[in-house]
Specification:
The chain is an alpha/beta fold and about 325 residues long. Helix content is about 45%, strand content about 20%. The strands form two sheets. A six-stranded mixed beta sheet has the order 2-1-3-10-4-11, sandwiched between helices. It has a five-stranded mixed beta sheet with strand order 7-6-8-5-9.
């Protein structure tokens, strides 16, 4: 009798505890199904007019319609993307996401002795698009190709300037100069828009920047493109070769942009957001609109985005090694 009573008590306890345990073990899908419950904010690491800004605003407009909640884009440039990252981390809110070129983040270990955040603080949600990146010079400059720029720079050591705007593009261009034994002075800029304007006025003779940033000056015939750094030619300017075709594969770089979530954001929620992003950004009219702005739609989920980030880290590590730089531990 006593044994039966004990067995009954054990059975009752298990019947109460087991469902709770199973619920804790189950994927957190409920939150994903009901998200978003309010407005969503994208914090951008760059200012207005950048490829990241233009592409993210197009995406935000489509997501607003899809989610039935406002999607607000907030530009927080400065501090080599640290201003935006700090704002994102301080919010600690699953309705506040970080939109950024991966190049801004992968360069930090080589730029800072103490990076003020951990890699695990930024959870990859979605790969969104690639900003087309190009090497450009002033229109009056007597160079027609990347090879011409190399020859001109070599003939005038220390007399030409290039615009540096920090991040991975700086490392790649600096590595390109060193690998080819070229002496060109770096002029630092806080944002690529100022660098592009000074290129047009011939205060600097070369810049590596997004085509979205350069487009107004290309259209006004104030600057010209020598090559695109992306793996394939850009359909809007099909006559412009890739850097690999121009003989300088060391400059190859796809301007990867994506969205990050806060630490602890459940995978089902990240996958849900990524799926919505994919559907929004791969709509044919969006693809065409982005392309005219110098942006190539390239949607991917959390795992794909994380893999793309690792590839870019490896690429940047090679450029940093050529410059004798070591990543902060």
């Amino acid at each position: 009798m006593f044994e039966s009573a004990a067995m009954m008590r054990t059975f009752i306890r298990l019947s109460l505890v087991l469902p709770l345990a199973l619920a804790c073990m189950a994927p957190n899908t409920g939150q994903a199904q009901t998200w978003p419950q309010r407005s969503v904010r994208f914090i951008l690491t760059l200012g207005p007019g950048s490829g990241t800004d233009i592409g993210t605003r197009v995406l935000a407009d489509r997501l607003t319609k899809r989610w039935g909640q406002p999607v607000v884009v907030e530009n927080r440039p400065g501090g080599d993307a640290i201003v935006a990252i700090n704002a994102f981390l301080t919010a600690n809110d699953d309705h506040v996401l970080l939109a950024s070129p991966v190049s801004s983040l992968t360069a930090h270990p080589y730029m800072m002795q103490n990076v003020p955040y951990k890699e695990s603080d930024l959870l990859p949600i979605a790969r969104t698009f690639n900003a087309v990146v190009a090497i450009a010079v002033p229109a009056p400059m007597q160079v027609k190709s990347l090879g011409d720029l190399v020859q001109t720079t070599r003939a005038q050591p220390g007399k030409l300037n290039w615009a540096g705007t920090t991040g991975a593009l700086d490392f790649l261009f600096a590595g390109f100069l060193k690998m080819n034994g070229l002496d060109m002075a770096r002029v630092p800029y806080r944002n690529p828009q100022d660098a592009a304007r000074d290129l047009a006025s011939e205060r600097v003779q070369a810049v590596m920047a997004s085509v979205a940033t350069l487009t107004p000056l290309i259209q006004s015939n104030k600057i010209k493109l020598l090559a695109v750094s992306n793996s394939a030619r850009f359909p809007v300017y099909p006559g412009i070769p890739t850097v690999k075709e121009a003989g300088h594969a060391e400059l190859t770089f796809d301007g990867l942009v994506g969205i990050f979530g806060p630490k602890g954001m459940p995978l089902p929620l990240r996958e849900k957001i990524a799926a919505d992003v994919r559907e929004a950004i791969m709509e044919q009219d969006v693809v065409q609109r982005l392309r005219t702005m110098g942006v190539i739609a390239n949607a991917g989920g959390p795992e794909q985005f994380a893999a793309s980030i690792r590839e870019q880290r490896d690429l940047l590590a090679s450029a940093a090694k050529a410059l004798g730089l070591k990543a902060a531990q």
